[in-house]
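Notebook, bench 3.
Goal today: get a predicted structure for HMA domain-containing protein from Arenibacter troitsensis so we can plan the truncation constructs. The sequence was checked against the plasmid map this morning, with no discrepancies at the termini. Length recorded as 72 residues. Pasting the sequence as submitted so the record is complete.
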Amino acid sequence: MKEVLVFKTSINSKRQVKVLKPDLNKLIANNGYWNFDLEDCDNILRVETQRVTATTITSLLKNHGFFCEELN
């Protein structure tokens, strides 16, 4: 069963999403889905996955220099 993870981020442009796209695609692979809502005030990242943890996603964004915090 897929889990839905939601994050507040500092991503605020399509250019920044493009930088992250290869790594997010590799991480999420074929069994999930991700997208950003850049029109939301919290620049939401929504991830549907079966095997990736919130900590892994947060670490990925932080390693690229972005803020990322899971919302509950």
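The chain has two helices and four strands. Residues 3-71 form a domain with the Alpha-Beta Plaits fold (CATH 3.30.70.100).
Flagging this for group meeting.
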